[in-house]
Amino acid sequence: MEPKEIDQEGRKRMGRGARIFLLLSVLLLISDALFVTINYHFSHRALIAEQADQGRNARAAYQMVMREQLDSMLLLAYTFAHQEDIQLMMLEAKQAVEREGGGPGGEQAAQVRQRLYGEVGELWRFLIERFDVRQLHFHLGPGSLSFLRVHRPDRYGDRMDDLRLTIAHTNEQRTPRTGFETGRVYSGIRGVVPLFAYPDGEKVHIGALEVGTSFTPLLQLLDRNLDMGWAALLKREHVEDAMWPEFVAKRFAATPRGCECVLEAHSREEINDFIATGVFRERREELQSDIVAIGGRHYAIAHWPLRDYLGAVQPERDSVGRIVVWRDISERFAAFRHDQWLTAAYALSAWLLIEALLFLAIRLGTRKLEDEVAQRTLRIRDLNEQLREQANTDALTGILNRRAFMERLEAERSRASRSGSPISLIIIDYDLFKHVNDRYGHPAGDAVLKQVTRVIAERLRISDLFARIGGEEFAIVLPDTNQEDALRLAKTLRQSVAQTPVQLPDHPPFQVTISLGVAAWHPQEEMRQWFAAADDALYRAKSEGRNACEGR
Fold first, then answer.
1. Does residue 36 fall inside a structural domain?
2. Measured between alpha carbons, how far is 477 from 144 in angstroms, rounded to an integer?
């Protein structure tokens, strides 16, 4: 070999070595990047799961404190309801309202209302200071007729039968009720007890007595004990349906626009920033956990549906809002990011070290190793190609098999659905093929299948899909082809097969025929319906004497 030729061969080998080195370097880099990505994915999932656990624990604490708060409201309601003076005054109120035409009543009802307000006023002020009570309300039955709102004595005489179901149900069943409920003035955590009087020893049902508090003391208690921010959000449509408009405008005008909600109560001001981000825009009926970045800080937020009294009685109803809890996890998130950067740095260092070792190994490698790698690569490529070909084609005819056909058919159907272009299906069946096998033998039948396959394939486009989907059953998919054009092609194929004699060794030429069923795909039609339409058309072609083609 001439020196020039030796130099050229050496350059080629150096080029191959460089390409191998570059390829392995890229693969190693990809594997390192994949490792870092997977590590980040699982670490992030662990962080999210950790926050979700915190959210579930917070929800359990909230439910426990809520139960205690409801029990407290119920106990306070019983305290008022069992005072004989109050019982007798409410009986007098009921009789006065009935005499004076219902609703707010008249002068006598007003006098009783004033006396009742004076009777409970001092205890009411004590309850506000000691127990954070916000509502004390006397209702006349049946249903819910407001007689005296101690918290708003200027508002009375309105009916709330369909709104205040804790009251309506208490008056109907004469048993106590508890729950969260939105009224005309407030949304409150309420305890309601039936109110009776006993004139002359006879038990008379008068109505219901309600004691309620707001979410604020409950959320502040949770905040102090768990060191987490808390808030209660109500759906705007819920409060607008229930409360008097002037109270809606007064109480919720400052709620930021980030969801269709209003801020009922909160323990920390960050909730306004969270609302503005839109994190509560979706109304899902389950516990959700999120990590939100605001002002350079990271917060873990959990929120779950808030169900009112009616929602607790009828679980299928939508929630009326959400309870939100959050905590600052900036330090935890910074540690998470530090770990990710450290992992990335380790991966990069390992890659550089492996690169150095790999470069040294390739430089010290022998020609035999290079040749062996090349030969094995070629053999693997050939083997993969053979396996791919075997997996997708019918061994006898060389066209697509059923599995590959169905995969490509779905892709073609999706393309047609997106573009709005037509697509048609032809199902083909050999007429009396069993007679060919019985008369000439199965090898002859195989030869017939191969010959007819060639005749059909020669008349198809490159874009058409042609497959053997059964013993002597074939299918063709025609992209960008409507029913009329598909039927025209089917007639051409039928004629071509019928006009092409079959030549077999040691046998005179003979003819075979085929029957075809055609169906264009209709939008929104399922795959099985499409095939059924083509099968039905094929059946009609067979029924009409074979050697025929029919459309849907």
1. no
2. 70
In sequence order, what are the residues at sequence separation of 6 or more whose Cβ sits closer than 8 angstroms to the Cβ of residue 235? 260, 261, 262, 283, 319, 320, 321
The answer to whether residue 383 scores a pLDDT higher than 70 is no
Tell me which of 13 and 478 has the higher pLDDT. Answer: 478
CATH code for the domain of 268: 3.30.450
Provide the pLDDT for residue 97.
Answer: 95
Instruction: Report the amino acid identity of residue 227.
Output: D
The model's pLDDT over 527-547, given as tens digits with 9 standing for 90+, comes to 899 999 999 999 999 998 899
Helix (DSSP H) and strand (DSSP E) numbers for the chain: 16, 17
Q: Which of 206, 231, 252 is the endpoint of a domain?
A: 206
The residue range of the domain holding 285 is: 217-331
Q: Are residues 381 and 419 in the same domain?
A: no
Give the CB-side neighbour count of residue 459, counting CA atoms within 13 A. 16
Residue with tokens 């007595």: 209
Residues 288 and 379 in one domain: no
What is the total count of domains within the chain? 4
DSSP letter, residue 459: T
Q: Which of 119, 206, 169 is nearest to 312 (CA)?
A: 169
Residue 330: C-alpha distances to residues 296, 334, 394 (Å): 9, 6, 61
372 with 473, same domain: the answer is no
Read off the pLDDT of residues 322-353 as tens digits, 9 standing for 90 and up.
Answer: 999 999 999 988 888 888 898 888 888 888 88
Q: Which of 6-10, 103-107, 166-170 has the lowest mean pLDDT?
A: 6-10
* Residue 271, both tokens: 């909730």
Instruction: Report the candidate in 299, 263, 259 with the shortest Cα–Cα distance to residue 282.
Output: 259
Beta strand pairing status for 321-328 and 297-306?
A: antiparallel
Indicate whether 283 and 184 sit together in one domain.
no
